[in-house]
Predict the structure.
Amino acid sequence: MQLGQRIKQRRQALNLSQREMAERVGLTPGFLSQIEHNLITPSIESLHKISEVLDVPLSDSNFLIDLESKNPVVTADKRLKLTLPGSQVVFELLTIDLKQPMDVFMVELKPEDGNIATLLPRPITEECIYVIQGQLEVKLGEKVYLLNSGDSIYFEGIHLRRLVAKSEEPLRFITAITPSLF
């Protein structure tokens, strides 16, 4: 069962109409309908609000994963896609859920997306980024690094100041973050 179906099923179990739930979450009923029909993926911020209204904490439940499947393989068509508030940048989860001690994402970033480091929470983390395609500018403290395809960088997340695509082609990278940000 996909995420949208699980949201709808839980909403119905609580006897909430789409309109009631949308009002509580701060979304339009049409937007919530698109989520429930798996036409769009909610942002992380919306997922948090939805989980609060449905009384299903993201951190200690199977809310984001398919309960019928314990398969550790995440196929390309089954990846959970998350967006950061105030951004169109999509983070594709490469692990089966967000309950692991480490988040692993594939990200596509365009130069016009700007600095996504400012949108990420900054707790004490350790992070590794591997560039698949394009160029990535990483600023740690006052030092700037330019990574090309095949390059990687490892750092403490608290020092991250900037993550920006520097090439004309879309930048694609994989990032592993521990402990989990989400």
User: Anything to note?
Assistant: The first strand starts at residue 81 and ends at 83. The beta strands are 81-83, 90-93, 103-109, 126-133, 136-140, 143-147, 152-156, 160-165, 171-178.
